[in-house]
Amino acid sequence: MAELHYQDKRKIENVIEEIAYSRVKRFYPTIVSKATDLPLNTVFEYLLKLTLDGRLKLEWEIRCDDYECNSLILRTDDIDQFIGQYVECECEREILINENIIFPVFSISGHYRQDIRESKKKSPSLLKAL
Ligand SMILES: [Zn+2]
Hints:
With 130 residues, this protein is α+β, with helices and mostly antiparallel strands. It has helices spanning 6-21, 29-36, 40-52, 110-121, 126-129; strands spanning 26-27, 56-63, 72-76, 86-88, 94-96, 102-108.
């Protein structure tokens, strides 16, 4: 994948900062894609990078494959151990866990959220130092 232009990175990072400053605990890549007008896979790739530098955490949600139920069955940061297993939903369906019913969900790391909140309070001191 080609490196994202800095403007696109900033678009994504601005959304992440807004989320970090809000009370939102978890968010789906689709929200960021809609907010930035960038393709979902582009957004997802970049959000993955932000998990590597400590800003975000990635988890996976397993949802019931019944269209009307769609309940959240479980959320995990280690999806590999669940693929191919059967779980029972609260609607009593027995479900084989596969790629079609797992969804990535991101959360803001505690440290990053704290940093964002503190930096919004402070006035810029760098210019004084220059
Ligand atoms: Zn269900």
